[in-house]
């Protein structure tokens, strides 16, 4: 049991860091754009960054509000409405972004290692808390990747890389291998670099 608790603690710490990393990636991508670019949609099948943010926030609020006791698809959620252009300003957009993330990160922070095997429901389908977290660890970075890609397309001027810059892999690897081996989360250095 003690070994399992250590793994559960390590898992919680690892996912918290990974989610914070992707949150910061989304913010750094949005920071590189002019406010009006956040609302650009190139065609009817494409969502603007603002719409993606609206959807992410709606998902986070629905999934993680009272997540241990109520279904993750709340009756008050209007998912289809998340894909309509309703946000008008960058300030509102960032407030919605932070509202969703705060709900989700507070839920993660509230978890104890013992709760990771608890069954919760999303649309009446049972998931362990670990499965629900992993589901979002695929879902949220998927959309943040869309945001980053879109931001790179819309950016006027030079893009400030959010990862290893193009044609800089050898330099990056040389720096990593010049240091002693260590055990840490890959996000430790990346979060510091992005901040």
What do you see in this structure?
This protein is mostly helical. Helices cover 56% and strands 4% of the residues. It has six helices and two strands; from the N terminus they run αααββααα. Strands 1-2 form a two-stranded antiparallel ribbon. A hairpin with a 2-residue loop joins β1 (119-122) and β2 (125-128). α1 packs parallel to α4 (129-154) and α1 (2-31) runs parallel beside α6. The protein is flat and about 45 Å long. The mean pLDDT is 91.
Characteristics:
6 helices, mainly alpha, 195 residues, two-stranded antiparallel ribbon, single chain
Question: What would a concise description of this structure say?
Answer:
56% of the residues lie in helices and 4% in strands. With 195 residues, it is mainly α.
């Amino acid at each position: 049991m003690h070994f399992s608790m250590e793994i559960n603690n390590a898992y919680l710490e690892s996912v918290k860091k990974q989610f914070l990393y992707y949150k910061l990636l989304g913010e750094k991508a949005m920071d590189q754009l002019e406010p009006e670019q956040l609302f650009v949609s190139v065609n009817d099948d494409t969502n603007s960054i603002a719409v993606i943010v609206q959807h992410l926030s709606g998902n986070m609020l629905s999934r993680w509000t009272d997540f241990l006791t109520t279904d993750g698809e709340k009756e008050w959620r209007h998912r289809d409405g998340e894909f309509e252009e309703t946000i008008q300003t960058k300030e509102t957009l960032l407030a919605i972004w932070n509202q969703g993330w705060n709900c989700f990160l507070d839920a993660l922070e509230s978890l104890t290692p013992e709760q990771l095997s608890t069954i919760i429901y999303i649309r009446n389908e049972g998931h362990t808390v670990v499965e629900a977290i992993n589901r979002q660890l695929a879902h949220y970075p998927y959309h943040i990747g869309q945001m980053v890609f879109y931001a790179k397309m819309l950016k006027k001027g030079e893009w400030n890389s959010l990862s290893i810059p193009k044609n800089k892999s050898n330099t990056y690897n040389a720096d990593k291998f010049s240091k002693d081996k260590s055990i840490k989360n890959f996000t430790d250095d990346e979060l510091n670099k992005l901040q």
